[in-house]
Amino acid sequence: NTMPRFVPPTRAAVVGESMALNPRTARAAAARKEGPEQQAACARAAQHHAALTTIASADGTDGVVGADGSPLFFPPVPRPRPGDWLAENQELGQSFVKYAKQTGYSVAQPHGPFDTIAIVLLMPVGDTDVPQLPAKLPRELKDYIEAFYAPLRVEVVSQPVLVVSGPKDEPKGLRTKDTVRVPYIGSANGVMGVPQVAFGELLRHATAAVSKRPDLRRRVVMTMGLTTLDITLDNGHNNWVYGAARPTDSAGVFSLVRFRPEFAGEDPQSSSA
């Protein structure tokens, strides 16, 4: 297959393109009467925005090019040849500008140093058949990730999850300000009676746990939810997954339940898992 050759953009191009997607940012910076360096950066961004032109590439999608006609990010996709993906499959295509508009991307917001990986423990509470994480696992995982991704730090965030199928099934006395209700879809193949939860639900609570911590939110480079609930994707294509991630949120959720010996009907004492 013929893959388009990546053209690394210059720093000026990235900054200018980011400013160009939201020209109001440049005008607001000028209105604040920024210093000479900030004014110069805004002027460069304005010039860059003026130089951007939109052209139609060979497959009918828009491409973003500079004033000299050279691509800022990727060159246009060449005409498909037999055996290429595009020769066998119809793709509508998407330009960077369209992607930015659809995802709400504009300009980078003020942010502290990205130096922390957040591990959110999404554990059920109450009377469930879900096995709990070994007490030493969060600490061991923290030590391992910090050693592997040094100098990044790892912070473990506890976010209890109350698993019920509906409000009427909610056990009394368990609902507190620290718990959240997550409806389960069913049991994981009937094994152990482990509740199966949608990935999107768990991901939402994992990212929310970090968002509640402004001091942590501004430092997190990624969020990893860890659970012993069984996970299924929201699209119905898979009846279960070990885990999944959403790149646009820099977050993912992973389940350890299928690694437990109890899940396969084995004696938990026969394994150190």
UniProtKB/TrEMBL annotation:
It comes from the Eukaryota. GO terms for molecular function: metallopeptidase activity. This is Uncharacterized protein.
